[in-house]
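Review box. Two proteins, two foldings.
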Amino acid sequence: MEFVIAFVVGGLICVIGQLLMDVGKLTPAHVMSMLVVAGVVLDFFGFYDPFIKFAGAGATVPITSFGHSLYHGAITEAERDGLVGMITGIFEVTSAGISAAIVFGFLAALVFKPRS
């Protein structure tokens, strides 16, 4: 049942993004930014952690989880090191995901021929 819930919740997040692009006529960059900010806002109000417990990968894989990670990293390090910690905490928590995206994007570009 966990897989079904994760699939449905992740799919609903994707549907929301697609509707924002199709109906709202927003660009993918706008939608991505909105979903990241939505993750931050949900985490600020304390809703994202229970959402992750309920949906599992359905809540941790979509881009909203990136906002959740940014917020957690910033708050955790800000409590410890102040303003400088807030800035470094953002990079500390999300660096693995960003690095993986860069490396796998590079490898995909080597394997597949890009269109021009």
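Next protein.
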Amino acid sequence: MSRKLPKYFFNFACLLVYIFLLAPILVVLLSSLTTTEYIVFPPEGLTLRWYTELIEHPEFMQSFTLSIIVAFGTAIISTAIGTLASLAVVRRQFKGKTAIVQLVG
């Protein structure tokens, strides 16, 4: 029984971290759907007005497009580097291999 206690504690700690990280995102998302010009609780209505106004401004759309391009490029480069690194770790012998395996695994 004492062996299961750390597992439950770890799961509870992970849940708290997830809540701590996701709660602000949820608050911002819900406050962006309100019909008022300011943040009120509880929201007085739901609308996508602020998102349609974002689409109508070209500077926001240019920034969004650039962010998507950078994210896509970063994902491609990261995937290539990660794949090559994993192949090197699995198939080759080199200094520091043990440290890399212990760091990742």
